[in-house]
Amino acid sequence: MDVREVVERTTDLVTTVALPVEDEHDGDVEAAGGEVLRVRLQGEARARGILSPHAPVDCGGLGLGMVDRSPVFEAAGRSLFGPLALNVHAPDEGNMHLLDHVATDTQRRRFLEPLVRGEVRSGFAMTEPAPGAGADPAALATRATKVDGGWLVNGRKWFITGADGAGFFIVMARTRGEPGEAGGATMFLASADSPGLEVLRHIGTMDRSMLGGHCEMSFTDVFVSDDDVLGGVDEGFRYAQVRLGPARMTHVMRWTGAVQRAHEVAVRHVAGREAFGARLADLGMMQQMIADNEIDLAATRALLMRACEELDAGGRASEATSVAKTFAAEALHRVADRCVQMCGGLGVSSDLPVARVAREIRPFRIYDGPSEVHRWSLARRAVRKYAQQPS
Amino acid sequence: MDVREVVERTTDLVTTVALPVEDEHDGDVEAAGGEVLRVRLQGEARARGILSPHAPVDCGGLGLGMVDRSPVFEAAGRSLFGPLALNVHAPDEGNMHLLDHVATDTQRRRFLEPLVRGEVRSGFAMTEPAPGAGADPAALATRATKVDGGWLVNGRKWFITGADGAGFFIVMARTRGEPGEAGGATMFLASADSPGLEVLRHIGTMDRSMLGGHCEMSFTDVFVSDDDVLGGVDEGFRYAQVRLGPARMTHVMRWTGAVQRAHEVAVRHVAGREAFGARLADLGMMQQMIADNEIDLAATRALLMRACEELDAGGRASEATSVAKTFAAEALHRVADRCVQMCGGLGVSSDLPVARVAREIRPFRIYDGPSEVHRWSLARRAVRKYAQQPS
Amino acid sequence: MDVREVVERTTDLVTTVALPVEDEHDGDVEAAGGEVLRVRLQGEARARGILSPHAPVDCGGLGLGMVDRSPVFEAAGRSLFGPLALNVHAPDEGNMHLLDHVATDTQRRRFLEPLVRGEVRSGFAMTEPAPGAGADPAALATRATKVDGGWLVNGRKWFITGADGAGFFIVMARTRGEPGEAGGATMFLASADSPGLEVLRHIGTMDRSMLGGHCEMSFTDVFVSDDDVLGGVDEGFRYAQVRLGPARMTHVMRWTGAVQRAHEVAVRHVAGREAFGARLADLGMMQQMIADNEIDLAATRALLMRACEELDAGGRASEATSVAKTFAAEALHRVADRCVQMCGGLGVSSDLPVARVAREIRPFRIYDGPSEVHRWSLARRAVRKYAQQPS
Amino acid sequence: MDVREVVERTTDLVTTVALPVEDEHDGDVEAAGGEVLRVRLQGEARARGILSPHAPVDCGGLGLGMVDRSPVFEAAGRSLFGPLALNVHAPDEGNMHLLDHVATDTQRRRFLEPLVRGEVRSGFAMTEPAPGAGADPAALATRATKVDGGWLVNGRKWFITGADGAGFFIVMARTRGEPGEAGGATMFLASADSPGLEVLRHIGTMDRSMLGGHCEMSFTDVFVSDDDVLGGVDEGFRYAQVRLGPARMTHVMRWTGAVQRAHEVAVRHVAGREAFGARLADLGMMQQMIADNEIDLAATRALLMRACEELDAGGRASEATSVAKTFAAEALHRVADRCVQMCGGLGVSSDLPVARVAREIRPFRIYDGPSEVHRWSLARRAVRKYAQQPS
């Protein structure tokens, strides 16, 4: 299917099905039906032939590359529930990407294919409460100990998106070294019903549109067989990088869609109101906010494209994705905040979607690497590059 | 009572009573008990002799001026429920101020005194849905028509804080001229049980700590007797100004307290965490956020003090309060946003109070005059002042 | 010649010839030799086969499109004198572009070819002192009156870059309508020695690297023959648009080079200094500035590329060039300002090139349309686009 | 004399004498006459009885405290040459303050009194080229070695304001410990004609209004007698603090004056121009800049007042002066930059004073402690204060 066709069908699904539900329930995915909503939305996508458009063709996806995903994911992202409908929401979308690159044939059939078909959801269990792995992955404290025929995983995880209701987890655990050492992590595939694996609680967060929440989990002697090791032992951090770059960019795509919608709503709002004898949209301070939104959105998309091209060309694109993610998370939040301001009292209400989008996108400046960590890494890279050069 | 003593007792009340409830219920006043919570908190304040510290002494208050209110309201504001406890929350605090200046003796006894004693809550019904009075008060569309012995009020209001459960309302209605004309408004005192007065719905807003919500209301032939006209007929806009300046400043005081707490929580958070081999609080990017918070808080307080001194000296201080309100609303929101960022994943959760404070304070850039309207007025004033001067 | 080859030769010329002169004279083009410097630098470029790389091949240029110009102009721009060396400085570069599109064959030979060969410089006489054409071109007040065989031009112009020493001018004058009306302008080719054409003074500006300065000029009954009308009568504003989009983008290219050099100098500075027991480059606040520079530079280039692709595809790209110009002018100035800050005392001195770059680039937020005018136009465009859409 | 009277006379001197010279020479103090200008301006101030208003009464000054200095220095600062006229320019003003606190009676007569009377200028020789004392004073590398009857000073200094033409210097040299150790500095009074003391060059800086420039100096076996040690041996860093707090604040006062003038000029500019059919001053984006200027100026003054009150009350006020200096240096630069933008092409020219003020004030974000060092110190203070507190 042509990408434009995928975009068009996505837009139709989002406009006619996802947005009305989102607006009715202020983007609260549980209030809007939770799993029941997911099944219904994904059914609509399946019927339109656009479920899992990024997944490999042999598993039932459309095999879109990064550049092609961009307009599709943005179109889906216009509704907070659109990515769920297309099965391109976090963390499943990134997990599919990772499994496609690393899974064995058996794992592919057992874990990837049902995921692509929307029969199951998954979690990515990496981040841990302090002093474990957070912004600094090397602090990884969850351990996997070798036993006969497999491994025993012990540790605590939190902010595990989608954990409540997930069918299986990709679990990152230390198989060598000590917390603080940058190496020796391994990825494991653990079924949700594994004895010792427990989802403890939903962490209350400002965002409410992620099905399955952001959860705290504990792993107590959770057994994972050797067959369910994902990729090589001690190779976990490397695979995390494989997942990371593209996952950052698909986040940007989705959020660009949500923020673009908020922008359009806000522009329409000021175009329809008068104050002080003028149309709000004709007041200079409003025009400044509108123009700044346009600029921030354009720069976000331009940086995104550049990173996607690099990824499609086979690069790791760590610098380009780091720049694009950091800029986008801040720029899109600025846009959403301006939309709130443009809409005045309605802007902080649930009568319009702008406050909702501002609330949902704020954590993106922290999730997937806080801006500070990205800046730290960009600065070190620049110092290495320029410090020794002659002028 | 010495102001320091009032501050100390307030701090005790906030720390031992208000904060625990706030933290347990993520600042959601309804979830925390609503009216029941108010009665309990105000009982605690009454027992400590600090209820309504700003109210006139003859009505049972402590008669604090603006400069003296400042540390007290800030101490109360450290908890989102602290102002409610002291009976200095919006809109009741501003309504007391207004009634003190404008009410007749009879009105004083019927409306102001019970308010000061915490026996009743009140509303200030001014803002209206488009195309009525919003950022531009001159658009006032609600009308009061003279009838025998009084007035009939008709119109629609929204974003009326505390309306649900209020015992009476100060209603602003047009008694002369047409929407768009800056004059001819009158204030009326209307009991909540007046026939034709209806609280239609809570508008869903991002903030959740205001008892009685932000409501939409309708007035259909609501009769107000001549005795219940507040001040002179057609003088409403002038009284609104009387209320406005101090009300802006007490908002700043309360929010400074809330944001100061968030700042302290965030500083403690980064002082207790390590990443990349260092204490977070020792990383330069964290230090920059901490220092920027300190600067923003100091500048907010310095501008506040200057405006309060001017008000205590009997000035209208429209310029000083406009500057202080605009700066504070933006600066305090910046501080709260940095606190979120400093706390990482926890910063967007309800495990810490920082996301909550960021959510609650955001609307302050819109309520009580959006920043844009204040800037517009400041600019016009500056142009008048400097345009004709020689260089 | 391959673009990479052009870039390489440009880099060599800039590094070995242009930068040493620039550094010795703090970027002051007159102090560095003025016309003598130009002839010397362009001789070096001619010898390397890279003079006028953007000019049409039939005139002696290399015929590079916008995308290909980008790395070449950026490499030239690393030195403030590099664009002059390659004959791609403002306003000559834009004038060549315009003449290439609009000039008759005769005009091409008389005006364009000598320009491409570096035998002459030119001016673009459009902006006028108040109340004439400035940010608002429609205010054009200079008039051309039809006389026998040609036109008489009368008016006053200022901020005419390169005027002092230019061989000819493209003059914009009103041939129909009144100041304030958006139409009726015509372009004229006027030799510098035309009677009545006078360069009155150099306006003292913060930038000092533009050969021929920014001058004030007067036109008193300057005769231009019918043959020297550039394009159609009354078509001037349309041609100005032809010149404008690409000219904005080549400005961005050149300034990106200058700012990139300042960034590298600043990074090297902090990599070589210690304070408070650490290398400056390892302090978080420095890293933040370095990273913000990297992000601003990357976003500038990404937006530039997008606009260049659109131009090369034959589009007018008014929106894309407006976004890119506005973002770049502000972002590059931010970068230069951070470089100043990173270098401390040396940062405000002429011992390093950073203060110089900051000084030279500041006017770019005003020249070629102030940011405010671009924002106004972007906002109006967005309102037209979104105001009527359903949500 | 009443402070208001001092302000009035200062305003008269500035308006009638200083501003015309400044405007004629674009604020270049050497071009405007250098020492000759100083003598003339100070003669005017002497005639008006307002020379050295901050100096102690017994030395011939008016003995104004910090709060009272504020409006006077701001009035002087409206012209870049005003502080020189009143003898309250850096570094002499701070040197008088320091000598008043630390000098012996003999030193007072020999050094302070002629300074107060405007008979001589002085320098404060503290900062050094890398790796010496810069942002980090503890890196002090210049050494004083005890010899019979005095000390021999050896080292190199730079960015010594006013050095060229100064009659004497307060020299900071290490008398104990090694560079990097925070202690063991001593202050010496060295006559400019001391053998071995050499002013090597003016460092070219973006600011041009400081008489005597910012110079590089060398000290080679410069002999200072025991009588010319200023204060106690090894007490130099402590005295530097005495000088520092007030010196920061008087900088703020002076720059507030200069920037206030630029703001008024810019407002008048936009009030007198039209574009796009409206007065520039009535366009929202202009109003936003005007209002932001007003807010930044008001916050600067409010923080300044708070710090001055603390200093007048005898406190060291390190936190308050650090906050005020950092905020002011950034805020006033923002204001100056907005003024440039508001004036368009004229804003970057020497036809108006705004570009000049922007150029002169930029280094203030670096001089007297870069913003980064102040932020670092503010952050550490905050962490100490809040880290151990219970929430």
UniProtKB/TrEMBL annotation, chains A, B, C, D:
Residues covered by the Acyl-CoA dehydrogenase/oxidase N-terminal domain: 5-119
Residues in Acyl-CoA dehydrogenase/oxidase C-terminal domain copies: 234-382
SUPFAM superfamilies, sorted: Acyl-CoA dehydrogenase C-terminal domain-like, Acyl-CoA dehydrogenase NM domain-like
Pfam families: Acyl-CoA_dh_1 (PF00441), Acyl-CoA_dh_M (PF02770), Acyl-CoA_dh_N (PF02771)
Oxidoreductase as UniProt keyword: yes
Cofactor(s), by name: FAD
Signal peptide per UniProt: none
Keywords, alphabetical: FAD, Flavoprotein, Oxidoreductase
Gene3D superfamilies per the UniProt record, alphabetical: Acyl-CoA dehydrogenase/oxidase, N-terminal domain, Butyryl-CoA Dehydrogenase, subunit A, domain 2, Butyryl-CoA Dehydrogenase, subunit A, domain 3
Residues of the Acyl-CoA oxidase/dehydrogenase middle domain: 123-222
Family: Belongs to the acyl-CoA dehydrogenase family.
Subunit structure of this chain's protein: Homodimer.
Protein name, as recorded: Acyl-CoA dehydrogenase
Organism of provenance: Nocardioides flavus (ex Wang et al. 2016)
Lineage, uppermost ranks: Bacteria, Bacillati, Actinomycetota, Actinomycetes, Propionibacteriales
